[in-house]
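Morning, I've got a small favour to ask if you have a moment. It would help a lot if you went through both lines with me. I owe you a coffee for this, so here goes:
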Amino acid sequence: MQLEKGARLGFYEIISPLGAGGMGEVYRAKDTKLGREVAIKLLLEEVSTDSERLARFEREARVLASLNHNNVATLFGFEKEADTSFLVMELVEGETLADRIARGPIPVGDAVPLFIQIAEGLAAAHERGVIHRDLKPANIKVSDTGVVKVLDFGLAKALSDETAGGGPAMTQSPTLTLAATRRGEILGTVAYMSPEQASGKTADKRTDIWAFGVCFYEAITGRRAFSAEDAPNTLAAVLRDEVDLETLPAEVGPGLRRLVERCTVRNPRNRLQDIGDARIELQSLDAQDQPFEATAKQSRRRLSLWIAAGVATGVVLTLGALRMLGGADPSPRPGSGALPVVRSTIDLDQLHLEPALEDGVVSISPDGKLLIAAAGSGRSLLYIRRLDSLELRPLPGTEGGFSRTVFSPDGRSFVFWDFKGHLKKVPIEGGQATIVAPAPDYWGGAWEGDDSFIYVPSTRSGLVRVALSGGEPETVTRPDTARGEISHRWPDPLPDGRGVILSITFGQETEDQRIAVLSYETGEIHTLIEGASDGRYLSSGHLVFVRGRSLYAAPFDPVRLEVTGDARPVVEGVYVGFHGMAGYTVSRDGSLLYVPASSEAAYRTKLLSIDRSGAQEPLFDEARNFKTPAFSPDGTRLAYTVQVESDWSLWVHDLRRGVSSRLSTIGDNQAAVWTPDGERIIFQSTRDGTMSLYWKRADGSGPEEALTSDEFVKVPSSMSPDGILAYTRLDRAFDIWTLKPGSGEEGEPFLATLESEANGIFSPDGKWIAYELTQAGETEIFVQPYPADGRRIQLSVNGGLSPSWSRSEREIFYLEGSSKLMSLSYEVVDGELVPSPPNQLFEVPTRVSGFPDRLFDVSPDGTRFVLPEAADLSKLKAVLVQNWFEELKRLVPID
């Protein structure tokens, strides 16, 4: 059936034909509901009219829709309109690999990066149990920027007819093979069939590996591996002939030649067994990875000049675990003899400021005499305390200080990360904070000698080194994405400049990570401990790390870079947070400071519903770690974030029925924003190793679709009535960006300055955005027209966080401090927003973190507010263990 321009299939409007394929006609179309262009694929009549095959296809399509990978074209849905059944798929621009090969062979250096991406897409599908079965150059598209998308994943199986002819085995053949066989012909893409496909045998993921090798051969030679005058003779060649490796280009080395050979072994039992292995081989050949060796050599030369003895234990750092530190009786510092192990508890509620285990920081100086903590009721500030004093002194210039403050080896200064995306250095005795380097999303760092700092600047980064006296950062390691590595984190240098301990992350949980060591002598990284995170070398001769909720130790030889004995648990019940960040720190003299896992109970509080008079009631009986509540546009549902074990999870609560359902289960998901029609929820997710934006149907059905792909930290905040998303993006500061979800377009800045702007909230008519602006450490609420025209109006007067608009009245709400819910009315006169002075509605302490989350929400009629209770600070403790090395040596002897 031919469709003309302007024809409609449901809410899809046909724009133009794109071609025809094994499934039928393919069209470019506009999704009039979401305002995006898609590809529409009409199914064959023989499928559309066969109810059994159609039902099976629909079941299979649901599985295919679950695939979500940058190198796989997304299947959005399976639709029916009258008697027409069709697929709605991502519209992928660019030429096919077949088009590119038609212009001549692809240089090997250009082909390798393309096939790394193809392998990554195949690996992602194979992990979900989906096999392509029809991989060929015509099913691979390459954008102008070199991004590869594999098309039509798994549709060969979905379109097959298991009840006919050859039975289930025939479902292994590419699209149309079975139907064509019933007509006495062999059609389809026989040149790329594996021998087992061609002979009608069961085909598994190794059939994709065969096709991968055949496609790679064709890409770099410009000729098909199997070709004859017609389909039957081509099929015979597949069953009989070997791939002619002698025709490979001269620049193909032995490793690449061996890879092609292993992919195209006729017997699948002897063939390469996993496409991930092909990806690893190609990655090792990728020229982009070659500079590492030179970098390692330069590092080794520099390290010979550094004073590094004892550095590792002196700069050991900790999880962002606390918001404040309270008093503890001073204890004598251990000497060189066998001193008694002394334990004491430090209460963390002295300042009555709002802490957050996953946000704050506690660190102990190398000599064990100083503590630094992050605290703050709105945005964090660093405080310092001597253990022989009860005074907790603020450190000017450390506003926004966050996550793992790191002392210098001499203890006279420290480096910290702030929310504006900077690493900064500050003297202990006070003084100007100097910017060391940009770090959009910091994942640990440590001093190497007196003037060098090694750190992890972003979510998907390896280790980076920078001179503290000034200079450009240089790469030390890169994650091996071919092996599934997301990043290298928590660096801890070894004595004498021999190397650095690091954590390799493959996922979010501790069991998805491993402790490894980089040798500066060889430039090689090798694994030390599987299923563990946050390792540090101590001068006692131990490697300590976290596994589960326990601190473990094992003997470690810093010369041979080897674990020399069994790992044993040494502290039970240690707090472990986001991505394996562990709440412990060890001084050079052997003092251990850790946050017990029981401190998490402080955040198990009620989610409150409060009316305008301040009368409150809990929404749920159970106390949990709640945050970022968001009413649906009609006020009948509430989305909220809650901690489930160590993950953040999004839930939707039906306020009429009193029923909650979990929206998303992959990775950490939080900060819900509803689309104006209430059909979808946009949220932040870390499933791919970055804090990206996704959306999903609010009823939980359908796939989760990525809206962004860059590595910047992003938090969604609101949507305009016409579907424009406002979100906070962290680069060198918090900025407000906007995005049209589903348009395929990248986000663009609304407010991006050297100041910090966050939490942009659209007015009900979409003409204004209220937001937080932080200047000189003070945060106030401002409003600007949308689109921005340079005007801005200050709304709050004594500090403000988390603005929100009434949807029924001309009224704006915000929090002053952590407890006062403020309101102000406004008028719009001649295009100017004129606010009234703010007034307090009620006072109720709520949770405030250093991150720019929405802290509360107001119902559409402006009568009720939902927000979580403040943490019970009396439950927050830290444990100080002095002379801990004496105990450690007894528990884990060093031979």
About this structure: Residues 158-188, 286-337, 351-360 have pLDDT under 50 and may be disordered. Residues 108-127 form the longest helix (20 residues). The CA atoms of residues 138 and 421 lie 43 Å apart.
